[in-house]
Amino acid sequence: MTDILAIDSAQHTDAGIKMEFHGIVVPDNYQLETKGIGIAIADGVSTSESSREASETCINGLLSDYYSTPDSWTVKTSISKVLNSINQWLYSKTDPNRFNNYTHATTLSGLILKSNTAHIFHIGDSRIYLIRDGAIDQLTSDHRVYVSENESYLKRAMGIDLHLEIDYKKIELQTDDIFILTTDGVHDFIGLKGISEIISANLNDLESAVRQIVNKAIEHKSDDNLTCQIFKIKSLPNPDSDEFFERLTKLPFSPELEAGNSIDKFKVIRQLHASSRSQCYYAVDLESEQKLVLKTPSINFEDDPSYIQSFLQEEWIGKQINSLHVLKVIEQTHERKFLYQIAEFIEGKTLRAWINENPYPEILDVLAIVEEIGKGLRAFHRLEMIHRDLKPENIMLDKHGIVKIIDFGSTKISGSEEILNPLDKNHLVGTIGYTAPEFATGSSGTVFTDQFSLAVICYEMLCGRLPFKGNLKQYSVEKRKYITIRNHTQQVPLWMEGAIKKALSENPESRYNDIDEFVYDLKHPNKVFAEETNLPLIERDPLKFWKGLAFSMIIINIVLIILLQKS
Predict the structure, then answer these.
(1) Sign of CA dihedral 482, 487, 492, 495
(2) What is the Cα–Cα distance from 395 to 457, expressed in whole angstroms?
(3) Which alpha helices (DSSP H) does 66-161 contain, by range?
(4) Does the global pTM surpass 0.90?
(5) How far is the CA of 466 from the CAs of 158, 400, 459, 495, 504, in angstroms?
């Protein structure tokens, strides 16, 4: 039986001069796996007029909005976006006419426990401790500055600056780990040793432990609000490979289909494509008469859990992305008897076919296609997904010329990468010739790898060839040599080739920050690329060359006229 993430928890508050809020959310099984357990504590700043509203807003907003973020996002991205939104609202309440009047200011410390990892985020002077193997450690640093022994101020807190700087770290969890969250009204009056001793004496009664910790701080004359949360890791996910495979194979593979066959409520009209990995059919929904594509997995992979997971994941990805430039996978509302997926039917051609039909394309046509591919990729990247297998065969142009990215079988979902599963993820993806070199060093892919593939496609559309020569079976650009596009065509401006070369840089950090910048430089001359080349001026900038030559001829003629007059 597979273990799941489970905790024991307790929390206690004693009212003081300001209000604090805290909370723990343990979701159901699905979100327990995809989003994890949320724990947070907020301590309103005493000089803030609305500290109660600030701390309440932080906790309620965080522990509700986090679970509404896309499952494809990482914890760090989700928390960052949620907290930045909350911080902007808090900061908007600041009175600009009064110095340091942060009416809605609060500290915030919390954790998201997802799979086997604790994601820790923190701003202010609340604290998070960890007891492991009997030793207690402070996991957070106080953002408090002391100007004298008795005078200090918070340099960082929610609501005091429009720019939010949150401390973030993650640690691998272990069974029996104990986490403690406290406000300064607790830890300023009871030390690490006192906290550790109380917990050690109450390992099986955390409710008693939190009350004793708070009461001990009161005994030590704490004049502040006091809140303490404790939770202990009871069990961690430990996926069992047999059970995992059983989950994946609930639906049997579809039998081989032919024209006229029906599967559930879909009738096959004809086969569109078949490979060693899958079959695609042109089909019709017998109820709605909608034309669609029905994709079935190849029976060759019936016992391959990695393949089945990838097939199921491809369907899930298509349902998450809503873009004109990405193939739309159709939500199925009826119970299926077999494993398959359905998607919109695109009446058109692949980009590979377009390249073959257009050996000497108009540059503006190429740029229009690249721009639309870029829009499709941005739809992936906004959801923290990386396509990782961008190539002309995986791009289609419909009958209206609209570009659509298809085939999501190699797509990386950043949020899913944080979830432990028994399948091996360390396999090379992509297609040789279009794949970024960092894959050879173990990278799982970033937005820069998709940018590299897009640059290869752009180069190929312009001249019908790939940009490298040498052993194309090598992922590393070091084993290949870039071929200038001018060896194939003189129609491409130098600044455009410069943009392509930058996007093809071996080092991902030397590429563009995002695809928008790459597309912009493809469409607008960047003088840097022309100035860096060693080519003669007539090739770098023909207009400037001929203007300069004409001006020189005028000067020469004037000089000759003067000399003739003198003679």
Answers:
(1) positive
(2) 10
(3) 75-92
(4) no
(5) 51, 27, 7, 19, 12
Read off the amino acid at residue 113.
L
214: tokens are: 């708070």
Burial 310-347 (b: 16+ CB within 10 A, else e): bbebbbbbbebbebebbbbbbeeeeeeeebbbbbbbbe
Structure tokens at 196: 């550790």
- Mean pLDDT for the chain? 88
Question: According to the model, what pLDDT value does residue 99 have?
Answer: 47
Please choose, from the candidates 55, 80, 82, the residue with its C-alpha nearest in 3D space to the C-alpha of residue 67: 82
Q: Which two tokens stand for residue 72?
A: 């494809």
| 487 vs 483: CA distance, rounded Å | 7
Beta-carbon count within 10 A of 505 CB: 18
Tokens 């502040």, residue? Answer: 224
Query: Cβ–Cβ contacts within 10 Å for residue 356, how many?
Result: 12
Tell me if 511 sits within 8 A of 436, measured CB to CB. Answer: no
CA distance 410 to 251: 22
pLDDT of amino acid 49: 64
Q: Are strands 341-344 and 291-297 parallel, antiparallel or unpaired?
A: antiparallel
What DSSP character marks residue 255?
P
